[in-house]
Amino acid sequence: MKRSNKVGIYIDALDVTMNGGFGLRYDMLRKFATRDECFPSRMNVYMAYDEDRAKEDELYKSKTNRFSEVLRDFQYKVIERPAKIDPNSDNKEKLNKSLVEMEMAADIITQAQGMDRVVILTNQENYIYVFNALQNMGVRVEIIGFDNVPDRLKKVADLFVSGYTIPKLLPIKSPYEWGTVGSRVRGVCYDFSHNDGYGFLRYLYKVDGNLWITDSRSPDSPYKTVFAHVSQFESDFDTNFLPSRDLIFEFDLVQNEKGLVAEDIVLISAP
Description:
With 271 residues, the chain is of the alpha/beta class. The protein has two domains: 6-165, 3-Layer(aba) Sandwich (Rossmann fold), CATH 3.40.50; 184-269, CATH 2.40.50.140. The chain has seven helices and 13 strands. It has helices spanning 13-18, 26-33, 51-56, 58-73, 97-111, 128-136, 151-156; strands spanning 6-12, 39-49, 77-82, 84-85, 94-95, 117-121, 140-145, 159-162, 184-193, 198-204, 223-229, 244-256, 259-269. The strands form three sheets. It has a six-stranded parallel β-sheet, sandwiched between helices. A five-stranded antiparallel β-sheet has the order 11-10-9-12-13, with no helix packed on it. A two-stranded antiparallel ribbon has the order 4-5. The longest helix has 16 residues, at 58-73. The chain is globular, with a radius of gyration of 20 Å.
């Protein structure tokens, strides 16, 4: 049967916000998920809405409504569920995690028939069962996460991508376009020589269907490699952890007589 090239995007907004994804640009998420000429069949954002707070806090109400309107401009379906008090929270934060997780899982399973792939943003390990069900249907499963993503969730998915490394997905302080000389980008240190005191960082400079071509020497690869000297890492960072694909670094791209090098390398995410 011919594939439809349809993609489904499902986001647990509370999970994203609580685990490093604050400020997520949903327009860039849509572009990444629909790369390689895919069509967004479903795009659902699941949000907790504190109705009691909205009655007393006009700023909270207006910000939430404005956020929902922006998402709808990007053609996401916003699914709001009333928040409930978490009795185990010291500050009585209001959460509705179990309701959101259950509804999102049910929607994914019932809507994924005929899709080519499903892109999910969640940190909940129980979604492993959802992933398996989708894969048994012939659907590819991709997960995008920031901090605290369970290893089992990453391994079961067909593709895990750190949201920190996707160009423009999160705000970054730089006056230059991501990937250009002088810009600040994020990537991983995939190779490092402790004897020589240097290694190489890899970053994604464009989004296309060739994410699997990680060798930046290939003309079809969307990745680029940059030289990284030990002196450019934070002074309190232990380079014995390098190389690592789990550590996410932010760094400046600088051109010198030797080529493209990384400067001011800062660790921004670790397991």
